[in-house]
Amino acid sequence: MEKRVTYCTDLEKSVIISNFERRGWIQVGPEDEWNFYWSFTQNCRNIFSIENGYRMNDNQIINHFPNHYEISRKDLLVKNIKRYRKELEKEGNPLAEKMEVVLPSGQVATRYVHLDIIPVTYVLPADYNMFVEEYRKSPQSTWIMKPCGKSQGTGIFLINKLSKLKKWSREAKIPFHPQLSSKESYVISRYIDNPLLIGGKKFDLRLYLLVTSFRPLKAYLFKHGFCRFCTVKYDTSVTELDNMYVHLTNVSVQRHGVEYNSLHGGKMSVQNFRLYLEGTRGRSVTEKLFADMHWLIVHSLKAVAPVMANDRHCFECYGYDIIIDNTLKPWLVEVNASPSLQSTTHNDRILKYKLIDNIISVVVPPDGIPDARWNKIPSAEALGDFEVLIDEELMEKEENGCRPNKNSRYR
Question: What is the CATH number assigned to the segment(s) 99-116+120-191?
Answer without folding.
Answer: 3.30.1490
